[in-house]
Known about the structure:
Oligomer: single chain
Structural class: mainly alpha
Largest sheet: none
Mean pLDDT: 96
Strand content: under 5%
Number of helices: 4
Helix content: over 70%
Amino acid sequence: MKNLLVSGIVGGFVNFLLGWVFYGILFKDIYPEGEDMNLVFTFLGCLTFGLFIAFIFTKWAGITIPLSGMKAGAIIGFFTSLSMNFFMYSNMPVNYQNIVLDVVISTVIGALVGASVALTLGKMK
């Protein structure tokens, strides 16, 4: 349980920082900050994703090697992002370029979160 929590928190922080880099700096014109943006909920979402990856790695997959974590994280990031984008655009005008860009960004973030979770788990053995 300790390994899951620690690695999940590390993954959550990595997710938050990478989200800030990608969505807050590099692509801020494409994904503008809303006037009601709440960073607490943003961080909680990132933490939840980190814990989700850590749960899969510790309870089901036994992943403790960063390269394996990167591959698994990329796959998880790809499918969760694709699913989220399909749901999100079911209620608004579709922007295919933003869907592709978001899925690519989320896949990269998922890969790096997965690698950081696996690295943390490997160090805690």
